Amino acid sequence: MAVNLLDLDPEALTTYFAGLGEKTFRAKQVLRWLHHFGADDVGQMTDIARSLREKLAVEACIVAPPVVSDKTSHDGTRKFLFSVGSGNAIETVFIPEADRGTLCISSQAGCALDCAFCSTGKQGFNRNLTTAEIIGQLWQANKALGRDPKGDRIVSNVVMMGMGEPLTNFDNVVAALKLMLDDNAYGLSRRRVTVSTSGIVPAMDRLRDACPVALAVSLHAPNDALRDQLVPINKKYPLKELLAACTRYLEKAPRDFITFEYVMLDGVNDSDAHARQLVEIAAQVPCKYNLIPFNPFPAAHFKRSSADRIRRFADILMSAGIITTTRKTRGDDIDAACGQLAGQVKDKSRRVIRLQNAGNVTNREVTQ
Length: 368
Ligand code: SAH
Ligand code: SF4
Prior knowledge:
By secondary structure, the protein is an alpha/beta fold. The chain folds into 2 domains: 3-61, DNA polymerase, domain 1, CATH 1.10.150; 67-366, Aldolase class I (TIM Barrel). Helix content is 34%, strand content 18%. It contains 12 helices and 14 strands. Helix 5 (131-145) packs parallel to helix 6 (170-181), helix 7 (201-210) packs parallel to helix 9 (239-252) and helix 10 (272-282) runs parallel beside helix 11 (307-319). Bound molecules: S-adenosyl-L-homocysteine and iron/sulfur cluster (SF4). The site of iron/sulfur cluster (SF4) has 11 residues, from helix 4. Residues 111, 113-115, 118, 120-121, 164-165, 198, 218 line the site of iron/sulfur cluster.
C-alpha cells in the first residue's frame, strides 16, 4: 500500500528516505513542500530529482481528510467538518482574535471517556485518528485560510481541544505535534501549541519527555467526590496523582504553568466554597484558571452558571492572586463552541445503545 507522506513526522520521513537510499536533506525538502507550501502532489516538488519524484508517485501518496462542510459563525469562528471514512466525521474550529488565529483540532472520532457535560463524550467512540488525519486538519485549514498581508500564516496557534482525548492517542498526536513545531513544517513555538487532557497521568509524563508543549488540564471539580462524577477518569487517576503529574510536567518547562480548565455548571461546581478549594490547589501547582461557561447541547442535563456567579467565582480566585480568565463563548450559533463538537461518530463502545436502553438518548446526531 502506498505510504501517506502526511503520516510521517520529521524523523519518520528521514527514515523513509534513508530506506530509499536518499540523503537526509531530501526529507527536509519534502517536509517543506508538504507542510510549508501545502503540496498535494509530488509532481509539484520541482527541486526533487525527476527519478525520485517518479518513484514517490508510485510508492507514496498525500492524502488529508476531505472537507465535507465549512461554516462561518456571525462572530467569525469557522467550523470545518472532515470525513474520516466509514461514516465518521470530525470537526475542527478556527477562532480568529485580534492578535492571533487559533485552530482547535480533533484527535479521535468520538471519545471513550464520557465526561458528564461533553457532547463528544456522549457520542461514544469509534477510533483514534491517524497522524495524517490530525495534521491534515491544520494542512487543510492553512489552505482554506491562507496568509495575512505580511505573508504570515493566519493560523498562529493550535489547541488540541476538539473531539477526543489526545493523550489516549499518544503516538499519532506526538507525531503531529512534532510536525507543528518543526521549522520545515509549521514552525510553531512550543508555547503556541497546547494539548488539553482530562488527566491521563502516565501519558502526561510521556508527553513531558517526548514533546513538552503547553499543557491544559480539564479540572472541572476541586475535589475527588465531585470530579469522580463529572470526569470519570478521575476514579483511575485521582486529584492527588493528577496534581503531582502537573508538577512533574513543569519540571521540563520551568517557566511555564498549567492551565486548568473549569467548566462552569450551575449549582454543581460553581459555589464560593468550590472556588476556595481551587485556591488551595493553585498553591500546589503553578497554574492559571480558565473558566468555561458551559455550552449546552441537545438533552444536556446541566445549565450554565449565571454571568454574575462566574464573575464572583473568578473574583475569589483573582483576589488570591491567581491569573483567571473566562473563555468567551465563540461560534455557538454553528455548534462550534467548546464541548459542542459532535461530527459524526459510529459508536463502537455501545454507549448509545446503553443510553437508549436507559431511555436517555442524549445526542440527535448519533441516532440518525
Ligand atoms: N479531551 C480533552 C480535550 C477536548 S475537550 C479534554 O477533556 O481536555 C476541550 C475542553 O472543553 C475541555 O476542557 C472540556 O472539558 C471542555 N468541555 C467539554 N464539554 C463542554 C461543554 N459542554 N461546555 C464547555 N466546555 C466543555
Ligand atoms: Fe472526552 Fe474531553 Fe469530552 Fe471528556 S471532555 S468526554 S475527555 S473530549
